[in-house]
Each structure stands twice: as C-alpha cells, then as structure tokens.
Design a protein that fits this description.
single chain; 409 residues; alpha/beta; 14% strand; oxidoreductase; NAD(P)-bd_dom_sf; UDP-Glc/GDP-Man
Length: 409
Amino acid sequence: MAVVGLGYVGLPTALALAESGRPVIGFEISEARLADIKAGRADLLPADHERLSRHLGGQLEITSEQSQLAAVASIIVCVPTPVDEHLVPDLSALQGACTMVAETAVQGQTIVLTSTTYVGSTRELLVGALEARELFVGRDVFVAFSPERIDPGDASHTPERTPRVVGGVTEECTRRAVDLLADWTPVVHVVSSPEAAEATKLLENTFRAVNIAFANEFASAVRALNLDPMEVIAAASTKPYGFMPFYPGPGVGGHCIPCDPHYLLWDLRRRRVGSPVIEAAMTSIAHRPLHVVRRAQEVLAEHSTPLVGAKILLVGVTYKPGVADVRESPALEIIAELVRRGADVHYTDPHVDQIHIGERTLTAEAPQGPWDLVIVHTAHPGLDLGWLADEPVVLDTTYRLPLPHRQVL
C-alpha cells in the first residue's frame, strides 16, 4: 500500500502501517522532506524514530516517483489542508493529491482520504476525477473518507491506539476501507457516507475551538474576580458527568484548531447558513495573541517600564509542548506585534533554532537576563524553568507555573 504525503500525519501513519507488517510506499513531493526523513531529522516521537530506523529501506520505502502509486492495492492520502491569510481554505495540496491519485489509479484500488476538509470534498475532488477517467467508484475503484486523528507529541494517541471513523461512497467502498484500517487501529466506527465522516472531523475540532475560546474568556473573567482559573477548572473537573475541562492559554496553533473550523464556516457561508457561535469563537481565538501583547504592556506599565525598548524574552515558541512545530503558533504573532510596538524581543526554545518574523530571522538564545519581562508561552516537558524565580516580572500564559509573583492573562 501507499501513503501520499509524509508530513506530521502521513509519516506516523506510514510507520504504524509498517509496524503492522505491511510493506508501505511513502510518497512525498518535497525532496527536502524526503532528505530530512532519511537523515532522521523529522519531528517524531522517540518510538517513531526507532520505527523509522528499523523500517526505512525495508518495510517502508519513500519516494517522489508518482508511477509507483500504480503498483499498490490501496492508497491513504494525508496531505495538509491549511487556510490562507484571509482564512479561506487552501485546497491546492488536496486537489493536487486527488488529481495525481486519480491519474495513476488502477482497477481494484482502495483510496482513503484522511485530510481534514469541507463536507462533500471526497466526491467533488476525488470521485469526480476518477470517473472522468471512466473508473467508476464502487465497481472499478473504491473510495472512502476516514479523518486523521494524529496528536503530535502525544505517545498515548498514536494511530494504532486511536479509533477511526470511516464512510465509503458505497457499501463495498466502506467494507474495503474497514478491511484496510481494521488490523492497525483498535476500533473502526462506520458512518453512512464520506460526508458524515468529513463532518465528524469538523465537529471534533470545532468543538475544541469553541471550548478553548470559552476557557480563555472565563480565565479573564475570574482574574477580574481575583480567582485562579486553574483552581476553578480543577474543581469543576471533579464532576463525573456533564463537564469536560479545557484550559486557557496564549492562543492556538498547529494544523487543526486554527484551520479546521474555517473549512466548516467557508462551506456554510457558501450555502448562506449562519453560525454565530462558531464565528464568535474563531474571532476570539484570532484575537488572543493580541490580548497577550496588551497584557504584556499592562504588566510592564505596572512596573513603570514602557513597552518601547523593553527587553522581553519569550520562553517556548512552538504551538504546543513537546513538539518542534511552529505552524500557526501564537508566539509568532505575539513576537511580531511586540516588535511592531517597539519592544526588543528575544526567545528561547530547545526545539526551534530559528524563526522568521516577516523579513527578520530570530535565533534561539540562552535565557540569561536581565529581562524587563519574561513571557512563558510554551513550557516543554523536562525544561528547567527554575531560573524564572529570579526574574522579577513573569507573564505566565500557561497558567501552570508555581511562581508566587507570576502574572497571568
């Protein structure tokens, strides 16, 4: 079988399949990405690095040769589905992958899309391209949608430990997709159609977005009441039903929450369907990094330090702890806005050597001060933050540091 796309989703998927005993072809158009994988530079969990060293060149072959896709019985498509600067879905990678897979498809193949996208995209982008070649889905080839559920950096949510949802274009498509998934994932939940499966993933991440936006709002509200939001959330979490904890922070990043709900909103707008709760949540999430900047300015003012010329250190710039991923990280917008307002901004992060802010390149530094303000953005596991006890002004956007003098958002 083949996995198309060897990014944060595709490579762990390919490794899980190889571990299950299947020979896997990993297809990737980026030669730079292929070089990183071969050199062991891909950002993976330690267990996946070990799998990569065992399977690469054996159970797992990686290539940029499109023709090899015609030699496999099944294909899983795992390409990125971001949004552009106007929060409009960027379908170029998915459209390109569907066109390529349709061009190389042969009779009998099973093709499963996993990339998060709008409802109806499996039929529009893949089924249409296949039938234009007179390969009829359900008879000649078999197509389903099964949304990815990768949680980067979390070893408890690997592909083979996480249930999958699958919906085929026909009953036979569903049956074949279930057969493909069942021996390397613990539970396969069947839905009635690819559209139901597509909507499932949009619900999952829109649910998270709405609740994170609410957690951020609640945290600011209880700060006004001189309460610790984490204490209140921990107390509410003792209720065994009707409550699920979500936690405040500096914003959201990565490949899911900042992007996926916009696929739903975009599709609903096309259909002239309103969604005020989702719209408000995504607006709140988009404004969160600016809230961090305003709060930083307030904290500095409380210590009689102007923002202009203030020496500020950001601790951690990845979008979540334990990964090297800065895609959509709130830290990038926070740094850009602080710089725009005249601050002297630096950062430290053991996972990220350099970041690009507009035309500027910043390099990670050791955290030696003195600093006018330290903003803790991402607290990586195992990172020694004991030195923060000696920093007079700390803004803790994680709400988790045991520092009596910390400030929060």
